[in-house]
Amino acid sequence: MINIKFTQQNVLYHVFNIDMLSLSVNNNLSDLILDLKNPQIIYDSYENIIHEQKLSTSSLTHSIQSDYNDISTTVKQKPFNHVVATESLLYNSQETRQKKRGNIKNDIYRSISSIENVSNPSATLIEPTNVHHDKVIDEKIIGLSNPTDAQNNSSSTIIINHPITVSELSQLIALHESEIIKFLFLKGINVTINQIISVDIATSIAVNYGFSVTNNDYATHEVMSNLKSVVIGATEPRVPILTIVGDINHGKTFLAEIIQNNQVPNKQTSSITQKIKAYETHLHLDNITQKAIILDTPGHGAFIAMRSLGLKIANLVILAIDANIGLSFQGIQIIKDIINKQVPIVIALTKIDTVTTDIDILKQNIINHDVIPQDLKNDIPIVPVSSVTGKNINVLLSNIITLVKKQELKATLNHKASGVIYNAYLDKNTGPILNVIIQNGTLHIGDIIVSGSIYGKVRAIKSHRHNKLQFASVSSIVDILGLPKVPVNGYIFTVVDNVKEAKKIVKQSQTYQGTLFSQQQTSSEISASALSSLQENNRVKKVRIIVKADTQGSINALFSSLSNIPRSKVELSITSAEIGIITETDIRLAAITKSLVIGFNTEITSNAEVIAKNGKIDIRNYKIISDLIYDMECYTNQFLKTVHTKDCIGMATVCSVFRLSTGVVAGCIVNSGKISKDSLLEISRDKSIIYKGLLKSMKHMKDNIFEAKQDDECGISVVGFDDWHVNDKIKVYVGQ
């Protein structure tokens, strides 16, 4: 009898065609181990082909072994007509598990019978009746009937507080990469094993599979508990935090300026906001003066992590919506985030001095949108304002002050300080600098502070106006100097009694966080996981990137942007990502690893420039995130098949644009030829080509389709592109 050893008991073992596999035998010939490096055809339990898949070497952990130690006969040939692979069953229903268990059991019976009757190949495969034999098989597939330890632990809390690769998420939640890729594919999101996904997407996957997710580390949980206990006995009024959010170019920064000064600014800032800007200010309304902290957040989609942080610490959110545009796709996502975080909201309908449409109609269109729950439709103030003329600014201030006073925010002065880090960066002269908001207590020079897995002594405190301070009280915006490393944006900091206590908290934080995030700090190297077999076959160009940026928030934004760039022919791999200027060390690393160096809001040393020039190292430094995205898209597009007129297989016109929760879809009619799956699309507007990219998905009504012919109507989405306009022209080329 064969003792079949399943390496994981919580999985379903699919049937494979053995001819598609190569088998390797160890030295003593006692074990037969599957080599899963080669392509395989996957079958389900009913022998139906699902799809072709190429498995990386990481799948070796999911193979089976056939142990010959207990076999009395000397079988020297392949023991199975079929072999098996895996799929997670942790979250199937009990009925499904039992059904699949029965199918697998029958497969095993057949395999064993074929071996025991090897001397008579024509013998009928009869199910063994040996009780011990049956018990052994039951034990081997017990994972299909009984919950495993992994399943029982699936409700435990995990940490996801920065963008993460599919491979890393797989390790974190003990779920095979293919399951994550399939989960996202069913939601219309195509990813690869090495692709970086956002915190929000990673969180939704983990929650779907039964995990409780926190975006903070162990120390943060401890501090938040302390904050709550402090607030119970607090008596001092606390200054509210007002976070201004909105889509890009919807007037957020202009609105922040006029709210602070209650007067029209001399001119509008031309640059876009690319980091959280914090201000201590006073709101003046008639005889009322209300001190407040205002956070102006970036509107570009790449900075979603900064926006999320601003919402997380806000006591009131001001959502800016351009009256000329209305509620954009980005605005819808922001409202969803605000409602999920249960933060009071005021909507400022901006730029009304340039609008010709009836304002009341605009307000009704917003309030009646499905994104706003029915029970909140009458509770959200919408104030039309103009930052140019100052119209209705007093009305906006009145709504803000009223909602703030209702909350009766309290804090305490006589307590060890704690608060949140909204920005952190490395200064080449002074070292790590933390921009923080003190939410409780009083901070003094010499205090020992802890944030995540970093601790240090406060060497200097500076006000938001850069004045040196000996201490800073609750509701202050200050800069802290003294930590040995740059902590993570969004982390809580807290003052502790001594270094011993700080080390204890750091140790607990590292244990809680696990080995996956042991390299969390910004000086860590971020290594890509193994490439898929597609890349091994040289069908994918691997582009290694070294990232240097001014802050951790900028690095997160870069990751988010790079993950959305089309990758049909390009595998982006992060060699390292650090805060600081580009140095000769970075250039030497780029030379060794053949990496592209990308800088964002940073500088290059003169020595680095000389070495890079001599070594012909490609350095690209950017100040604006949109410039970086455009340049990198052009860079990766060079690896797409060159478009020639003879390759054109169809043409289409955009008739309508749909902004859905899953993305932007262009409703098209095919003018000639056809649109096929995996096509390369060339999008033109006003006779100018504005984008080239791969077809991401294509639907007719709600059904996925693989081809649309002349005169057919369909909805399409393109990888890395959502700026569709009606009458955009599409040329369709053969993809590769």
TrEMBL record:
Similarity comment text for this entry: Belongs to the TRAFAC class translation factor GTPase superfamily. Classic translation factor GTPase family. IF-2 subfamily.
Q: Which GO terms describe its cellular component?
A: cytoplasm
This protein is called what?
Translation initiation factor IF-2, chloroplastic
The free-text function statement in the UniProt record for this protein reads: One of the essential components for the initiation of protein synthesis. Protects formylmethionyl-tRNA from spontaneous hydrolysis and promotes its binding to the 30S ribosomal subunits. Also involved in the hydrolysis of GTP during the formation of the 70S ribosomal complex.
One GO MF annotation is: GTPase activity
NCBIfam families tied to this protein: IF-2, small_GTP
Domain of life here? Answer: Eukaryota
Which UniProt keywords are given for this protein, alphabetically ordered?
GTP-binding, Initiation factor, Nucleotide-binding, Plastid, Protein biosynthesis
| Name of a matching Pfam family | IF2_N
Q: Which organism is it from?
A: Hildenbrandia rubra
Can you give the residue ranges of the Tr-type G domain?
Answer: 237-408
